[in-house]
């Protein structure tokens, strides 16, 4: 195959239809089948880029030496001009193989051939500025309520209006379309020229980050971190020695809270930028010191970064039946991350979601116990054995050994042998884990209150990240408490930047937001929590309306519709 041939979108579609993993990078068409199982970030990170121009994502997540090796996978070049993104098969994209005539003609199509083709154009729900309605005929009652959360609709409108006549699928579609319309009003349009301008400006911003040396780690800052970690650990041991078990638990929880920030840095290769060294740091901190799998975290976190807040694909918001941050969960969802696992909308979800704003903090207080389970499920699964290929063969056994050592030291040596009574043991375990609640709240804070709407494949990487992510405003002296997680918008746009440089990048990002007219969500910690609780409450109210719809239909004898 001529590696310099021009491959048209139709040809690329035909290759994807045959099962090839085709990704666009700069002007190159890459075939990544041979790299799919070896990718250290997991194969899902690649599958979500199939058919798309992934230049910005690849540049953001990889160092220069890695980028130089990308050309080895080139099978051709794309036509001049911007690439129109296709929907990846993992997200439901359907592709057609090329006919013999198309293959002989080089796959070239004229404008009339591509008109209306779903893969090469934006979906119907792309822009309401043109005057084309984004609502189906069942949504007439909601058109006048654009921008108003459905939770604010009166019960009368449900019992006697359009909502009361909706099936669950219609109701869910209506609410989701209202969310889409709201975002299309608040954010720059998906017009190709507008999004291309955003892409150009983002790449200029990225180059400014490189030119200022903001990818370089300041190791002296980690010296300060080590003093704090060591101090907390020593205080834990001293309190334990003097049998102050509750106080000892507080210090141990503080140690876990602080040191996990460095595991996060290592997971993104933001410390040494070397795979083996940063992976070893991550395994030591996450698995050995904290009992959590860094491999599980990287596997889910990489997908979270690429397809942020998408209910079907982002594992960080797939928490049914405890929580639902999107009405899309009302119709039951198949998770691409959890290998087709179905998050069913059932009676338990119908009971818990309406009260989720009240159960949120209590569940966050004990959330770490769930992470222990997920960690072991990951290291015992095929997903762990296939993560990273031969380069990372040692990570899985190292994780198993690290977590086993953690439970021996924490569970047996500390809790069982060093604490004399069951009451003290239970209190020690609970307090040490409840101290971690701010960390779990912080993890959710930047996303759970933000949009979960899907605007189509034409949205730029930068705009999607800023639309689905929020930064937390805090004074510089408090940065140690948040550990860099307060700069999630900055981090999502530049995930390899060491956290001690994120505040400087934020200054550059504010100018970028002003130039592109993309709203930059920046709130204080309290206001951010109010936003999250407000979103949880809004979705909870939507569930109540849904239940009323179902009861209304049942009373009318339309049982089969729900």
Automatic annotation (TrEMBL):
Domain of life: Eukaryota
Pfam families named in the record: Cyt-b5, FA_desaturase
Domain Cytochrome b5 heme-binding: 4-79
Membrane protein topology class: Multi-pass membrane protein
Subcellular localization, as worded in the UniProt entry: Membrane
CDD domains: Delta6-FADS-like (cd03506)
Coiled coil stretches, renumbered: none
E.C. number: 1.14.19.18
A biological-process GO annotation: sphingolipid metabolic process
Bilayer-spanning residue ranges: 232-255, 275-297, 358-379, 400-419, 425-445
Keyword line: Heme, Iron, Lipid metabolism, Membrane, Metal-binding, Oxidoreductase, Sphingolipid metabolism, Transmembrane, Transmembrane helix
Keyword Protein transport attributed: no
Entry GO CC: membrane
Family: Belongs to the fatty acid desaturase type 1 family.
Protein name, per record: Delta 8-(E)-sphingolipid desaturase
Source organism per UniProt: Emericellopsis atlantica
Lineage: Eukaryota, Fungi, Dikarya, Ascomycota, Pezizomycotina
């Amino acid at each position: 195959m001529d590696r310099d041939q021009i491959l048209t979108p139709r040809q690329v579609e035909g290759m994807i239809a045959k099962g090839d993993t085709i990704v666009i990078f700069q002007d190159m068409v890459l075939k990544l089948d041979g790299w799919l199982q070896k990718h250290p970030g997991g194969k899902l990170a690649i599958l979500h880029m199939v058919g798309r121009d992934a230049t910005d994502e690849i540049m953001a997540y990889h160092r220069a030496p890695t980028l130089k090796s990308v050309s080895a996978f080139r099978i051709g070049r794309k036509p001049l001009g911007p690439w129109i993104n296709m929907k990846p098969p993992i997200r439901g994209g359907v592709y057609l193989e090329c006919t013999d005539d198309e293959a002989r003609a080089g796959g070239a199509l004229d404008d009339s051939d591509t008109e209306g083709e779903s893969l090469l154009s934006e979906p119907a729900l792309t822009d309401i500025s043109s005057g084309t309605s984004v609502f189906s005929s069942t949504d007439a009652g909601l058109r006048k309520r654009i921008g108003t959360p459905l939770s604010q609709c009166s019960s009368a409108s449900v019992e006697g209006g359009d909502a009361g006549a909706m099936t669950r699928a219609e109701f869910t579609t209506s609410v989701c379309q209202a969310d889409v319309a709201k975002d299309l009003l608040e954010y720059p349009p998906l017009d190709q020229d507008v999004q291309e301008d955003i892409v150009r400006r983002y790449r200029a911003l990225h180059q400014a980050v490189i030119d200022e040396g903001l990818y370089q780690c300041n190791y002296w800052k980690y010296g300060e971190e080590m003093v704090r970690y060591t101090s907390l650990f020593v205080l834990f041991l001293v309190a334990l020695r003097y049998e102050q078990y509750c106080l000892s638990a507080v210090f141990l929880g503080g140690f876990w809270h602080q040191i996990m920030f460095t595991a996060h840095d290592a997971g993104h290769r933001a410390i040494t930028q070397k795979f083996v060294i940063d992976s070893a740091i991550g395994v030591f901190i996450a698995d050995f010191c904290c009992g959590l799998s860094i491999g599980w975290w990287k596997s889910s976190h990489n997908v979270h970064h690429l397809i942020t807040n998408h209910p079907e694909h982002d594992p960080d918001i797939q928490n049914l039946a405890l929580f639902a941050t999107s009405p899309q969960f009302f119709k039951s969802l198949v998770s691409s991350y959890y290998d087709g696992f179905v998050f069913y909308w059932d009676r338990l979800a119908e009971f818990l979601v309406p009260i989720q704003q009240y159960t949120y903090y209590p569940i966050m207080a004990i959330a770490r116990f769930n992470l222990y389970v997920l960690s072991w499920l990951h290291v015992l699964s095929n997903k762990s054995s296939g993560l990273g290929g031969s380069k990372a063969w040692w990570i899985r056994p190292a994780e198993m050994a690290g977590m086993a050592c953690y439970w021996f030291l924490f569970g047996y040596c500390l809790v069982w042998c060093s604490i004399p009574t069951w009451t003290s043991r239970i209190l020690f375990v609970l307090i040490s884990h409840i101290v971690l609640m701010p960390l779990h709240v912080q993890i959710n804070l930047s996303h759970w209150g933000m949009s979960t709407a899907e605007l189509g494949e034409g949205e730029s990487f930068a705009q999607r990240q800023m639309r689905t992510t929020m930064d937390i405003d805090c004074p510089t002296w408090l940065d140690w408490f948040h550990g860099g997680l307060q700069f999630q918008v900055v981090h999502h746009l530049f995930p390899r930047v060491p956290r001690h440089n994120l505040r400087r990048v934020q200054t550059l990002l504010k100018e970028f937001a002003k130039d592109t007219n993309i709203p930059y969500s920046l709130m204080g910690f309290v206001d951010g929590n109010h936003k999250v609780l407000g979103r949880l409450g809004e979705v909870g109210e939507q569930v109540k309306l849904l239940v009323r719809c179902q009861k209304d239909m049942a009373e009318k004898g339309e049982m089969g519709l729900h």
